[in-house]
Amino acid sequence: MDNGKSFKKLPVGIENFEDIRTHGFYYVDKTALIRDLLHSWGEVNLFARPRRFGKSLNMSMLKSFFEIGCDKSLFDGLEIAKETALCDAYMGKFPVISISLKSVNGQNFRSACEILRYVIGNEAMRFQFLLQDEKLTEPEKKQYEQLICVDTSGGESFLMADVLAEKYGSGKWQ
User: Which of 49, 78, 129, 140 has its CA 20 to 30 A from that of 31?
Assistant: First the structure.
């Protein structure tokens, strides 16, 4: 039955906030989560939800909000846009490291570590501009360079040492 109304599409299997907002999918506005996180800030925030409950989409939304150079129009008409002072203070102001461990699996420990290095290394490559930033100390820049060092002699894999991947993955990065 066509009553002249067009319906949005359902975002089945889509976890990318930007894709949902720019391609005309239905979106249940959860941007108040940004405000809540900023007002009740914790050193660590745990998002424990069942499978298929929007955790990845929420992480993508947070990245889209905080990431330097973000498309602020993605948030037009959403709850968080009403918080103008908060948006002015935080939207698009930070380099955001976003790592999903969904793809980190392997036939054995070594192959899983290699995939983890790949995930960390590829995400770290997005931030090479930080090497020019005066806020980072030389030791911090050297540590960052270890994350993005690639073995070009063969498999083009990241060379970061296990201890560095372990330190980065545990949240003990200094």
Answer: 129
Q: Cα–Cα distance between 131 and 119 in angstroms, integer?
A: 20
Contact predicate 158/119, CB 8 Å: no
Burial (0-12, 13-18, 19+ Cβ within 10 Å), 117: buried
- For every residue of 45-98, which 3-state class applies, written as one string? CCCCCCCCCCHHHHHHHHHHHHECCCCHHHHCCCHHHHCHHHHHHHCCCECCCC
Residue 173, pLDDT above cutoff 80: no
Global confidence as pTM: 0.79
